[in-house]
Amino acid sequence: MRSAYGVETVRAAERELMARLPDGALMQRAAAGLAAVCAQLLRGGGPGRRPARRKVAGARVGVLVGGGDNGGDALYAGARLARRGAGVYAVLMDAGRAHGGGLAALLAAGGRVVERLPERLDLVLDGLLGIGGRGGLRPAAAALAAQADTARAAGALVVAVDLPSGVDADTGEVAGAVVGADVTVTFGAYKPGLLISPGATYAGTVRLVDIGLALPARPEVSALQDADVAGLLPVPGAESDKYRRGVVGVLAGSGQYPGAAVLAVAGALRGGAGAVRYVGPADQAVLARFPETLIGTGRVQAWVAGPGLGDGRLAEVERLLASDVPLLVDADGLRGLSPEALRRRTAPTLLTPHAGEAAALLGVDRASVEAQRLRRARELAERYGATVLLKGSTTVVCDPAGQVRVNPTGTPWLATAGSGDVLSGLAGSLLAAGLDPLDAASAAAYLHGRAAHHAAADAPVTAQQVAEALPAAWRTTSEASGAGGRARRVGVSGT
Ligand SMILES: NC(=O)C1=CN([C@@H]2O[C@H](COP(=O)(O)OP(=O)(O)OC[C@H]3O[C@@H](n4cnc5c(N)ncnc54)[C@H](OP(=O)(O)O)[C@@H]3O)[C@@H](O)[C@H]2O)[C@@H](O)CC1
Ligand SMILES: Nc1ncnc2c1ncn2[C@@H]1O[C@H](COP(=O)(O)OP(=O)(O)O)[C@@H](O)[C@H]1O
Ligand SMILES: [K+]
Question: Binding of K(+): at which residues (predicted)?
Answer without folding.
Answer: 70, 126, 165
